[in-house]
Structure formats: structure tokens, C-alpha cells
TrEMBL record:
Recorded family membership: Belongs to the ABC transporter superfamily.
Keyword flag Secreted: no
SMART domains: AAA
The keyword Cell division belongs to this UniProt entry's keyword annotation: yes
Subunit structure: Homodimer. Forms a membrane-associated complex with FtsX.
An example Gene Ontology biological process: cell division
Gene Ontology CC terms: plasma membrane
A Pfam entry, by short name: ABC_tran
A GO molecular-function annotation: ATP hydrolysis activity
Domain of life: Bacteria
Protein topology in the membrane: Peripheral membrane protein
Keywords: ATP-binding, Cell cycle, Cell division, Cell membrane, Membrane, Nucleotide-binding
Name of the protein this chain belongs to: Cell division ATP-binding protein FtsE
């Protein structure tokens, strides 16, 4: 569950990146967030993960009030979120298994549960045979699937993906988006920031379009707006 109410964000240099946004994303939804370069997509993601604090308005995410959260509550809030980035951000010196184990240990998961859960998520992303490989031994699409497995491993309520296919060819991009849809069908709320107009159109999901820090369209069934940049 994500709620934004009259959210504004002005950076210290005076840039008004977000100019009054209100939106609600319910549990179980799949939503694309699109808009031209500089429209405020990354700023929204950063406010959702607590990396930036809005200058006005309120943000609720999975029961936490992110816009005025106490410092000690941030780790608990983050545990309800799995975040995926364009550049994968895997630990190069760790194997696929160890990359996943690392984030499970960080939340104090027992060893037996770790093994079972990693086996399950690697099957889900189709990489059960790559558990002992290092990221450098995998293709870009495979690395992104490891990043998705890592985002899922602690069973978050919500997955937030910031340009997850930005470094992949069209075929791999389609695979990754299809995987995110499958994960959504298994019950996780998914929010995807993307520039991939063709992919957005293919899936027929809810699309929120922003421009100059405002929502200019919020509708189901494909990309609306016209001026998305590549
Ligand atoms: N740390 C910052 N300090 C000042 N201004 C910033 C900062 N980060 C972003 N901005 C500005 O805020 C506006 C929104 O930027 P943001 O990165 O959210 O856009 P975006 O939609 O994610 O763009 P892109 O698609 O190019 O990644 C832009 O005008 C940008 O220059």
C-alpha cells in the first residue's frame, strides 16, 4: 500500500522536482511510472525508499509514514520493500547464493530458512543452476534476475524497480518485465519506473505519467502522453 498526499519536493538548490502529487497504489497492484527525463521519477522513488524527505505532504508505505519516520523505524520500513536498479548492484566478490544470503543474514534469518528460501527464489527467477556462479560469469539479464531474487528474498510486500531494463536488449527486457508481472501475480505489489514505451503498451497495466513534477495521466491500458524519451 502506497499513499502520496500533496507531496512536494524542492531540492536545496531550489529545484522544484515534485509539485503536488497525490496517488494511491493498493496492495497487489502492478503500476508503471513513466515520464520524460527530469520529470521527477527518481525523486519519487527516493522519497518512497526514505532516501529523500519531501518538503511538503505525506507519504505512507506499507503502514509506515515515510515522510516523518523516526530514524530507528527506517530499517523496519525498508524490510517491507525490495528495490531493483538499472545497474543490478550485486556484490561482485560474492556468488549468487552469497549475494542472497547476505541480505537474509542482515535481517537475522536462521540458516535453514535461508537455504530453503534461496532455493525457492532462484527457481522462481529461473537461476537455480547458477547459485555458485559469480555475477561476472552471468549475462546482464541473468544478473538482473539475481537482483530480482535478492529483492524478493526477504518476502517484501512491495517491489520498486527503477529502470530495471535500462541496460538490457529488448528480448531480455521483455523477460524481466514478464518476471515482474509473474511476481505481482504471486501477490507482491510492483511499481516499475521505465522508459520502455513498447513494453508498457504490451502489458496493459495501470500507468502513472508524470511531467514537470505533476501527474498528467493515471489510467489503465498502456502508455498515454506521447513524449517519453528513450
Ligand atoms: N540532488 C538533486 N539536487 C537538485 N536537483 C535535483 C537533484 N536530483 C534531481 N534534481 C532535479 O529534479 C528534477 C527531477 O529529477 P529526477 O531525477 O527525479 O527525474 P527523472 O524523471 O528520474 O529523470 P531521468 O528519467 O532522466 O532519470 C530535475 O530537474 C533534476 O535536475
Amino acid at each position: 500500500m502506497i499513499r502520496l498526499k500533496d507531496v512536494e519536493m524542492e531540492y536545496p538548490n531550489g529545484t522544484r522536482a515534485i509539485r503536488g502529487i497525490s496517488a494511491a497504489i493498493e496492495d497487489g497492484e502492478f503500476v508503471f511510472l513513466v515520464g520524460p527525463s527530469g520529470s521527477g521519477k527518481s525523486t519519487i522513488i527516493k522519497m518512497l525508499t526514505g532516501e529523500e524527505v519531501p518538503t511538503a505532504g505525506r507519504i505512507m508505505i506499507n503502514g509506515f509514514s515515510v515522510s516523518n519516520i523516526a530514524e530507528r523505524q527506517i530499517p523496519m520500513m525498508r524490510r517491507t520493500l525490495g528495490v531493483i536498479f538499472q545497474d543490478f548492484r550485486l556484490i561482485e566478490k560474492k556468488t549468487v547464493y552469497e549475494n542472497l544470503e547476505f541480505v537474509m543474514r542482515a535481517v537475522g534469518m536462521p540458516k535453514k530458512e535461508i537455504k530453503q528460501r534461496i532455493t525457492y527464489v532462484l527457481q522462481l527467477v529461473g537461476l537455480e543452476k547458477k547459485a555458485e556462479n559469480f555475477p561476472s560469469e552471468l549475462s546482464g539479464g541473468e544478473q538482473q534476475r539475481v537482483a530480482i531474487a535478492r529483492a524478493l528474498v526477504n518476502n517484501p510486500a512491495t517491489i520498486i524497480a527503477d529502470e530495471p531494463t535500462g541496460n538490457l536488449d529488448p528480448e531480455r527486457s521483455m523477460e524481466i518485465m514478464t518476471l515482474l508481472v509473474k511476481i505481482n501475480q504471486l501477490g507482491t505489489t510492483v511499481l516499475v519506473v521505465t522508459h520502455e514505451k513498447d513494453l508498457v503498451n504490451k502489458f496493459g497495466k495501470r500507468v502513472i505519467t508524470i511531467d514537470q513534477g505533476r501527474i498528467i495521466n493515471d489510467s489503465v491500458g498502456g502508455y498515454v502522453g506521447g513524449h517519453i524519451h528513450e
